[in-house]
Design goal:
By secondary structure, the chain is α/β, with parallel strands linked by helices. The chain has 2 domains: about 160 residues, Rossmann fold; about 60 residues, no CATH class. Helices cover about 35% and strands about 25% of the residues. The chain has 10 helices and 10 strands. The strands form 2 sheets. A 6-stranded mixed sheet has the order 6-7-8-3-9-10, with helices on both faces. A 4-stranded antiparallel sheet has the order 2-1-4-5, covered by helices on one side. Strand 1 and strand 2 form a beta hairpin. Helix 3 packs parallel to helix 6. The radius of gyration is 17 Å and the shape is globular. It binds adenosine-5'-triphosphate. The site of adenosine-5'-triphosphate has 11 residues, from strand 2 and helix 1. Pfam families: ABC_tran. One of its GO terms (biological process) is L-amino acid transport. Belongs to the ABC transporter superfamily. GO terms for molecular function: ATP binding; ATP hydrolysis activity; branched-chain amino acid transmembrane transporter activity. This is ABC transporter ATP-binding protein.
Length: about 230
C-alpha cells in the first residue's frame, strides 16, 4: 500500500532524511520507531507532501507521491493525526467532526461509539477539552475522512496513563476493523503487540526493519536504537 525507498528530505539546506525505506501492506499496522530527532516526523511530513522529499521513491496505492501537492496526497486517502493534536478550538466537538466528514464508513455515530467521551462533549467547544480528549478528537477527525491509511504521530505522548489506555483500546478497535495504520510512538509495550511490522530510524536512515516479536525479544537492539 505504501512504499518508501531511499527517501531524502531537507529543511532548507539542512538534510534530515538520508535514506528512509519502509513498506506497509494494506490492513496492517506499521510502527515507525527511533529516538528523538531521528526523522520520524520528517518521514511522515515527506509522505504527506508537507515537506516534500528531494530524492527517493514514495508510492501509495500504486501512485507516485513525489511532486504531488499535499492536498492531492491527502485526497488519495491519507488521514494524518499530526503531533500536537490540532483541532479547530472555537468549533464544537460535533462541528470539528463534521468539518472533515467524507466518504462512507466512519460517521458521527461510529466515532461516538469509539470515543464515548466525545459524545458526552459534542456541544462543547474543542478549546475546553482536556489534552487527552483533544487527542481523541484529532483521531476521530482523521477517521471521519475515511482514510485508506491512518497516520498517527505520537498519539499518546504526554497523556495520563488511563487516557493512553483508552486511546490504545480505540486504536486496537480501529485496527480490528481492517484499517491500515502508520504509527509513531515511544511506548513499545503498548505499541508492539498491536503492530504487524516495525521500522527503526537512526539519524535519518532506516537501520532495521522486522517483526515486532523479534524487536521485543532483542534487548540489545532496543538499547542500541531506542534506549534513552
Ligand atoms: N522545521 C525544521 N527545520 C529544520 N530542521 C528540522 C525541522 N524539523 C525537524 N528538523 C530536524 O530534522 C531532524 C529530524 O527531526 P524529526 O522531527 O523528524 O525527528 P523525530 O524522530 O520525529 O523526533 P521527535 O521524536 O523528537 O519528534 C532533526 O535533526 C530535527 O532537528
Amino acid at each position: 500500500m505504501l512504499e518508501l525507498q531511499a527517501v531524502q528530505t531537507f529543511y532548507g539546506s539542512s538534510q534530515a532524511l538520508f535514506g528512509v525505506d519502509l513498506a506497509l501492506a494494506e490492513g496492517e499496522m506499521l510502527a515507525l520507531l527511533g529516538r528523538n530527532g531521528m526523522g520520524k516526523t520528517t518521514t511522515i511530513r515527506s509522505i504527506c507532501g508537507l515537506t516534500p522529499a528531494r530524492a527517493g521513491t514514495l508510492r501509495f496505492m500504486g501512485r507516485d507521491l513525489r511532486d504531488l501537492p499535499a492536498f492531492r496526497i491527502a485526497r488519495l486517502g491519507l488521514g494524518l493525526v499530526p503531533e500536537g493534536r490540532r483541532c479547530f478550538p472555537n468549533l464544537t466537538v460535533r462541528e470539528n467532526l463534521l468539518a472533515t466528514a467524507r466518504g462512507k464508513g466512519w460517521d458521527l455515530t461510529s466515532v461516538a461509539k469509539l470515543f464515548p467521551r466525545l459524545e458526552e462533549r459534542a456541544e462543547q467547544s474543542a478549546r475546553t477539552l482536556s489534552g487527552g480528549e483533544q487527542q481523541m478528537l484529532a483521531i476521530a477527525r482523521a477517521l471521519m475522512t475515511n482514510p485508506r491509511l491512518l497516520i498517527l504521530d505520537e498519539a499518546t505522548e504526554g497523556l495520563a496513563p488511563v487516557i493512553r489506555q483508552e486511546i490504545w483500546a480505540a486504536i486496537r478497535d480501529v485496527k480490528g476493523g481492517g484499517q491500515s495504520i502508520l504509527v509513531v510512538d515511544k511506548n513499545l509495550k503498548d505499541l508492539l503487540p498491536l503492530s504487524d511490522a516495525c521500522v527503526i530510524l537512526e539519524k535519518g536512515s532506516t537501520v532495521w526493519q522486522g517483526r515486532p516479536a523479534d524487536l521485543a525479544a532483542d534487548a540489545e537492539l532496543q538499547d542500541r536504537y531506542l534506549g534513552v
